[in-house]
Amino acid sequence: MDVVGWCFFFLLLPSFFFLPSHTQSESFTSILVSQNGLDFVKDLLVNKAIASIIPLQIPRIEKSVRIPFLGGIDVVVSNLTIYELDVASSYVKLGETGVVIVASGTTCNLSMNWHYSYTTWLGPIEISDQGIASVQVEGMEIGLSLGLQSDEGGLKLSLSECGCHVKNISIELEGGASWFYQGMVNAFKDQIGASVETTIANKLSEGVSDLDSFLQSLPKEIPVDDNAALNVTFTSDPILRNSSITFEIDGLFTKTETNRVFRKSLSSVICPGNSKMLGISLDEDVFNSAAALYYNAEYMQWIVDKVPEQSLLNTARWRFIIPQLYKKYPNQDMNLNISLSSPPLVKISEQYVGANVDADLVIDVLEAGQVIPVACISLVIRGSGALRVTGNNLGGSVKLEDFSMSLKWSNVGNLHLHLLQPIVWTVIQTVFVPYANDHLEKGFPLPVIRGFTLENAQIICSSSQITVCSDVAYLDPSQLRLRLPRSTPKSF
Q1: Does domain 256-274+283-491 have CATH number 3.15.20.10?
Q2: Within 10 Å of residue 243's Cβ, how many Cβ atoms?
Q3: What CATH number does the domain located at 49-216 have?
Q4: pLDDT by residue (tens digit) across 96-147?
Q5: Distance CA 318, CA 336 (A)
Q6: pLDDT-based confidence at 62, cuts 50/70/90?
Q7: 3-state SS of the chain: helix, strand, coil percent to 5?
Q8: For 487, phi and psi rounded to 5 degrees?
Q9: Confidence label for 206 from pLDDT (cuts 50, 70 and 90)
Q10: What are the sequence ranges of the domains in the chain?
Q11: Is residue 23 packed enough to be buried (19+ CB in 10 Å), middle (13-18) or exposed (0-12)?
Q12: How far apart are CA 380 and CA 405, in angstroms?
């Protein structure tokens, strides 16, 4: 669909009848479009809609009249074209059962060709004349009532009412003996007005039908990478309020079966003062579903064989920390095999975004081409996060707060864990945290329609969820590659 189609979609999304709900699925992401957002997209839609339908061809009009002493006169108006359309004002009104989109005070200018001919009763002589004319339509009102409901995870659009009413029309002829025939052509005002009304209404109806087909083809997943995608199926019908509309989508990461059962806990989207156009709320289970997906795909295992201080990976460095290790394997290189024992658990509160990670650290000795596990330490790592919106992606970073250790098993005697703590801290800080931040920095896409970008985004944390409150800007196709400056990170 072209850029105009996207504009129609983004406006019409918040502009539907609230039809009776089907059986609802659980929702972990909700999107609120405020009145400011509705007004912004409505203005954008009007401009793009006008550009998409101009010029608009009106069917030719033929009329036969009988005049005393002259006989029958055939008059034809052809090549009737709307070449300019101007909307003085427009509004979107939400109600309990639906929405009305109205453009009022609309004027349009048309051009046309006129031709008449008749045969006199005095003889078989045909008399004709032709020319062009300018037509101006004033005080036109255009209205739409639309309905939308969820349909098997997608959206189905329906047109309830569509109308166009012309108040005033004036015709000015040029060419031929136009001054003489002005009154005759003025008799076409009603027919021209009716044709304008019918053609515009039909064009809008076709646009809604095309948009419905487009909605049916919308993807139900947004790819994140080769291993994960966001489930963006709609879980219920839109929720209409006096000055906003909310959409609920699944929002979890998909593609790999997870063992964790997620609960529905999402509350209403809250943006202070509704000053922003758009609010996107994500439950902490969205992040936990991503963690579970990558964990089950076995992407949370690392073999550390290089560290900034490479001497750490030789038993000689450990001779005073684990004497039996050095005695049994003197001057042997080592690996540290880190694997998570369960998916990371993300917790969100008003003051804090953090994650708890349970991991096993296996100490491997490399001897004669063999990898020999000699000890395993269980780790409980606690980190805090900073979130930021970059373009239409939500990303961030993590830092280490603290960790605890316990010995799981050992083939080299008892370990003095307090002596190991500085080494483990160094490994986590120099290997684990940078690796995690490389991936977190990229982030994942927020459910924003292509062609639009978030601007001046703010991140608000509440119990078990975050909300991205943002204005929205529209980018023409030639500007789609424009990079926007990052917002200031939100730390906790």
Answers
A1: yes
A2: 12
A3: 3.15.10.10
A4: 656 788 889 999 999 988 887 876 655 566 777 788 888 899 989 998 888 8
A5: 13
A6: confident
A7: 25, 45, 30
A8: -80, 165
A9: confident
A10: 49-216, 256-274+283-491
A11: exposed
A12: 7
Q: Supply 329's token pair.
A: 């394997």
Phi and psi, residue 211, nearest 5°: -65, -35
Task: Give the pLDDT confidence of 462-478 residue by residue, as tens digits.
Answer: 888 999 999 988 876 54
pLDDT, residue 489, reads: 41
Residue whose entry in the numeric block shows the structure tokens 């970008």: 453
**Six-digit token pair at 488?**
């200031």
- Six token digits for residue 26: 């659980």
Q: Which two tokens stand for residue 153?
A: 């995870």
Give burial (CB, 10 Å; 0-12/13-18/19+) of 452. buried
Neighbour count for residue 490 (Cβ, 10 Å): 19
Question: What's the DSSP call for residue 68?
Answer: T
* Confidence bin at 226 (pLDDT 50/70/90): confident
Confidence (pTM): 0.71
Instruction: Say which amino acid occupies 350.
Output: E
**pLDDT for the residue numbered 389:** 94
Determine whether 447 is exposed, middle or buried from the number of CB atoms within 10 Å of its CB (0-12, 13-18, 19+).
middle
Chain centre distance of CA 240: 19
Q: Quick one: tokens of 162?
A: 């569509």
Which two structure tokens, joined as six digits, stand for 215?
């909605």
Strands 353-367, 345-348: pairing kind: antiparallel
Structure tokens at 370: 């063999």
